[in-house]
Specification:
Blueprint (H helix, E strand, L loop, with lengths): L10 E5 L4 H12 L3 E6 L2 H13 L3 E6 L5 H5 L1 H9 L4 E4 L16 H29 L2 E8 L10 H21 L4 E8 L2 E2 L7 H4 L4 E2 H14 L3 E2 L4 H9 L1 H14 L14 H7 L6
Parallel strand pairs: 1-2, 1-4, 2-3, 4-5, 5-6, 6-9, 7-8
This protein binds NADP nicotinamide-adenine-dinucleotide phosphate.
């Protein structure tokens, strides 16, 4: 981790800026003096956010962009150069999610493709466009908004977690190459954050663990300090899985089997003896 820096005057490109973590990050970064380029598909939301930032005395330029549109992404470097004169930090927050059991997904391959197209291919497309600018400057910082579902598998998120894992591992591998070229990579493995993405059901609202403003404060901390990664306590689950993989899987299998469609609340059946017998049909370790 490097020494902390100020956000004053930093040129920051934020994807997913129309909503949730990206939007909250934009507001907080602008208040601390950063100049912003705001990316997402929703043009109106970006324009309104840029106006709000302008009214508060900050600077932000909306650059509407669909990350699954290769031509549009290719045009970004020129637009970022024109808007900000370069780029110091990329906060990559854009993403899509789904939460569905595999057994209910067999006729929905298109959903798997959509997640991969935005979360993985869209992210890589963006890096291909933006990293040359950072390499020319021999300076830059990429903050990738990943998910705890990459640290520990959780039920009903297989397609989402796989797409996020692909992007995360791509960037983590590239980070080794980029390290000696002046570019830092920070991966933020967020737990559930209370945003439109995490509100597909009423029950979820009650269990959201982090507010979008708290998540944004953490993104700003990452911009200032450039850590390798932040895991928000989820390292414990990562270690649990590494040390006792079968126990980890069996424990989650029991939770999955005993709860209804949301992963945390609303007990479906409670834990029944047959579930324990099935889950622990082999040694738990
Ligand atoms: N919320 C959570 O519990 C949670 C937990 C861990 C990690 N994360 C990660 O945090 C990031 C932000 O999610 P959020 O919770 O803030 O969700 P959100 O409120 O739904 O925001 C998602 C953002 O991604 C943008 N986006 C979606 N598809 C896009 C595309 N094809 N091209 C460009 N932009 C696109 C959306 O804007 P438009 O619709 O305007 O394009 C929106 O600004 C995601 O990468 C997510 O995987 C979220």
């Amino acid at each position: 981790m490097k020494g902390a820096r100020s956000l004053q005057g930093l040129r920051i490109v934020i994807t997913g800026a129309s909503s949730g973590i990206g939007r909250a990050t934009a507001l907080q970064a602008a208040r601390q003096g950063a100049a912003l380029a705001l990316l997402a598909r929703s043009e109106d939301a970006l324009r309104e956010l840029a106006e709000e930032i302008g009214r508060e005395g900050g600077f932000a330029v909306p650059l509407p962009c669909d990350l699954s549109d290769a031509e549009r992404v290719d045009a970004l470097p020129d637009e970022i150069e024109k808007a900000l004169g370069g780029i110091d930090v990329l906060v990559h927050s854009a993403g899509v999610s789904t939460r569905r059991e595999l057994a209910d997904s067999f006729d929905r391959f298109d959903e798997v493709e959509r997640l991969a197209d935005v979360n993985y291919f869209g992210g890589v497309r963006l890096l291909h466009a933006v990293l040359p600018m950072m390499l020319d400057q021999e300076d830059g910082h990429v903050v990738n908004i990943s998910t705890g579902a990459v640290l520990t598998p959780i039920p009903r998120f297989s397609a989402y977690a796989a797409s996020k894992a692909a992007m995360t591992f791509f960037l983590e591998s590239a980070a080794i190459e980029l390290r000696t070229r002046g570019i830092d990579v920070s991966t933020l493995y967020f737990p559930f954050v209370d945003t439109p993405m995490a509100r597909p059901s009423d029950s979820f609202n009650r269990t959201a663990l982090k507010s979008d403003t708290a998540a944004a404060a953490s993104v700003l901390r990452a911009i200032r300090k450039r850590p390798h990664k932040l895991t928000y306590g989820l390292w414990a689950l990562e270690w649990f899985r590494a040390i006792a993989p079968a126990l980890h899987r069996n424990y989650l299998a029991l939770i999955f089997a005993s709860y209804a469609s949301s992963i945390l609340p609303t007990p479906r059946n409670g834990v029944r003896p047959w579930m324990i017998r099935r889950v622990w049909r082999k040694s738990p370790f």
